[in-house]
Amino acid sequence: MYLLFLGKLIVLNVLRDWRKNLIACMAILIGTISLVLFGGYVAQMYEGLRLGSIYSQLGHYQVHAAVVGEEAYTKSLIAKEQAVLVADKLAALDEVKLVSHRVEAQGLISFGDKSVGILAYGVDADADAQISEAVSIVEGSGLFSHKPAGALVGRELLAELGAKVGDILTFLTTTDGGAINAVDMEVTGVMDTGAKELNKRFIKMNLSLMQEVQYSDAVTNLVVLLDESKLTDESDRLIRAVIANNGAGLSIKSWSEMSDQYHQIVAMFNNIFSFVTALVIIIIFAAIFNTMTMGVMERVSELSTIRALGSSRTEVLLMVLIEGLIVGVFAVLVGISSGALLAQVINYANIAMPTPPGSTFAYPLRILLDLQVLMVPALLTLVATLVGGFFPAWRAGRLPINEAMQR
Which of 55, 350, 367, 388 has a beta carbon 3.0–4.6 Å from 343's, enabling a disulfide? Predict the structure, then answer.
């Protein structure tokens, strides 16, 4: 019965000081919405960077020859027999969608009187189309196995050469034995990787043509693409176990291990998000602290009377603290709901963002809502509410009864 009375008293006190509580509630509400939207934007950006890295060139994993010492400065190839064996073992895993053979080489591309140093990939045409979903074909067509002499050329590189779709380019590189060899290829398509610098120095050709110019059927790496809907906590261990058991002299790296740019961007935005979060939490703390301090000072006689009727200091402290917590919980629930609703409106509005520096792709503003994006602002806001309300509540419990009742 006493607890019921105390609960009723707490609710009535919250409703009685509704103007002050509304001010605190608005500060918490705006802060929570801001954290949800900014956190969702950052989470979506991370996810976009991850998928962009995987579905542009890297795949989920790549298998390379493990070379050390002086051998690391020479071209290291995986023999055809070993590449086929490892690819078959990997493809047998339920998580693996496909395994593509690839040869990476540097060389010169020539057209007319112009020659440019480039990076060239020899790829399985059909498999690479799935691995490179983030690479767009802006003119012409993609690679096809029935057109072995075809090539995809970066947009800026083709413009620098002064060539166009259908022209014949000459690719000059070194063979597996160190000799120099050249091959002609037809420009079947123009690609945009999303990065201007890469577009200036990048081509793709069929794997058979690359192996022909190098006089070798070996490959430099295997690219592994996974079915993300089938990934489990054990997937990474199973994939690495295949290489450990069947890939003597081979090493495997995940997209995360190969993408330094991703981790640099994540570190930068984590610092920005932490700074913004700290500012919002300080504002919420100040709003709760100010509101509850004013409330306690205005209710000195009332709180002292409650003490005089037999309530302990702890009960008064908890009563005042719960009042602030009720305001905080209400504001957080409304803030989370409003933030989620605003996120859906923003996603539906399809707002275009400016093209990032060094990139060729513009992208729409998206807010990713997941459990972490919603729960982190809620927990931080509630902690700020509790901390901001503790000192005024503690002060209320420490008021001397005889002196306080005379105010």
Answer: 367
